[in-house]
């Protein structure tokens, strides 16, 4: 019986080692194949999505996809025409922010990071004001 145990243990081990190795590439290959098939349907959109940053993919995966795309298009257009982004895209930015707040459960990490950045900016401004007033007092 002890001779059967090592044999039964040895036989499945190489097979199980081979099977997962074969499954992993086969899992990746179908994904790549499906990505190649999708561009035929909407090639411009799919090519754009393949090269998108993680942030953009995250933003589009939530409930504010349309608002984000509108904001993104506004930014792109302002840059192309060398316009003031803040002025041109104020409405698109406001709409996106309101949407993100309405979907705070999903966008919470972004909202939290934005709030922290705002707090840091306020601290920096206050620090600069203090330094400026000290400089004026010295003169």
From TrEMBL:
Compositional bias (Basic and acidic residues): 10-25
Q: Which domain of life is it from?
A: Eukaryota
Matching entries from Pfam families are given as: GCK (PF07802)
Write out the ranges of the annotated region (Disordered). 1-52, 118-139
Q: GCK domain location, by residue? A: 51-125
**UniProt-listed InterPro entries:** GCK_dom
Record field: compositional bias (Acidic residues): 26-52
Q: What is this protein called?
A: X-linked retinitis pigmentosa GTPase regulator-interacting protein 1-like isoform X1
